[in-house]
Amino acid sequence: MITIPGTFALEHLETLNLQDNRLSTLRKQTFHGTSFLQELDLSRNSLSQLSTEQFRNLRNLRILNLSGNHIRSLSRDVFEGTRIETLDLSSNRISIVPSAAFLEVGYTLRDLNLAENLIEHLDSSAFPVSQLINLNLADNRLTILPDNSFVALNGLLSLNLSKNYIQANFKELFHYLPDLKRLYMANCGLKIVPVLPLSNLNILDLSFNAIQVLDQANVQYLTSLKELSLVNNSLNAVPDVRLRILRHLDLSDNPIEIENSGQRGCSVVDCIGLKWVNAFKTYPLIDQLMKQFVVTTLPLLL
Q1: Who's near 290: CB < 8 A, 6+ residues apart?
Q2: For residue 281, which phi and psi values (nearest 5 degrees)?
Q3: Is 213 left (phi over 0), alpha (psi -120 to 50) or beta?
Q4: Rounded to a whole number, what is the largest CA-CA distance in the chain?
Q5: What is the Cα–Cα distance from 65 to 19, expressed in whole angstroms?
Q6: DSSP letter at 160?
Q7: Can you tell me the distance from the alpha carbon of 204 to that of 247, in angstroms, rounded to the nearest whole number?
Q8: What's the rounded Cα separation, in Å, for the pair 263 and 280?
Q9: Digitized pLDDT (tens) for each residue of the chain, 302 residues in all
């Protein structure tokens, strides 16, 4: 199916799935006969553009999936008249955040996925969506992030910046996200753990970077951290830090070595089983986790 002939005249339709077709164009009035539609899936088609007011009559639309298309930009009025809460624009060809289009759903949008696009730049006007809770920007072309990139997102709870080689003043950048609970920065080219002023953060993913050291100064503000992933970094020692309520720690695929009881140069991944747990009692972080009955077997996926 390359295009949809005519208009859907299904007055009481609530869910419409058109994924995995070959749609390249949509008529302006394609969905005007579906005023009760709540969920629309147009993913994995060949759409390159959407008409102005494409979804104008869909006042009940809450979930819109446009992922896996060829969309480069969105017109200002494309979401006019809708109350979209979840919008998936991942795996398209967007190079500039379509801020003007988001204005139409600025008070309803809560979940925005822009992963796997071509976005290079953010600024203070990028996200005029004050109710946003989840934002996914993974696998774009972001490099330098201005301090005010997230200034309008005070209520954000989850942010994914993975697979972007980012340079930023992270302390200032995240100053505007006081309620953030989940932060994903895997494969961001990090060589040190940035100081994050995020006292409510529960989950931090720093896997697949080039981090060599983690000390207390790096995590001083992370008083609510429960899960920390440092998979596939360059750590050669168990981090000597205290995280009061940490429950899950993943240090797998690091070149960590220990020296204990005559075992010199013994790789953690190769050598440590339950019998080696005592070797880590000198490390506050591991000792803390043991006391919380988290450690059972190793390698360290806790």
Answers
A1: 277, 280, 281
A2: -65, -15
A3: beta
A4: 79
A5: 9
A6: E
A7: 12
A8: 13
A9: 555 655 677 889 999 999 999 999 998 888 988 999 999 999 999 999 998 889 988 999 999 999 999 999 999 999 999 999 999 999 999 999 999 999 999 999 999 999 999 999 999 999 999 999 999 999 999 999 999 999 999 999 999 999 999 999 999 999 999 999 999 999 999 999 999 999 999 999 999 999 999 999 999 999 999 999 999 999 998 888 899 999 999 999 999 986 654 444 433 333 332 223 333 444 555 555 555 434 333 343 33
The Cβ-side half-sphere exposure at 141, using a 13 Å CA radius, reads 11
Q: Residue 243 to residues 9, 45, 233, 285: CA-CA distances in angstroms?
A: 58, 46, 20, 7
State both tokens at 245: 């309520």
**Cβ–Cβ under 8 Å, residues 279 and 256:** no
Pairing of the two strands 182-184 and 39-41: unpaired
Structure tokens at 296: 């059972």
Q: 276 phi and psi, to 5 degrees?
A: -95, 0
Joined tokens for residue 153: 């997102």
* Residue whose tokens read 């809770």: 133
Which run of H or of E encompasses 175? none
SS3 readout for 66-123? CCCCCCCCCCCCCCCCCCCCEEECCCCCCCCCCHHHHHHHCCCCCEEECCCCCCCCCC
Distances (CA, A) of 279 to 237, 264, 266, 299: 13, 12, 12, 14
Q: Supply φ then ψ for residue 128, to 5 degrees.
A: -85, 55
Taking the C-alpha atoms of residue 247 and residue 119, their distance in angstroms, rounded to an integer, is 35
Contact in structure between 35 and 14 (CB atoms under 8 Å)? no
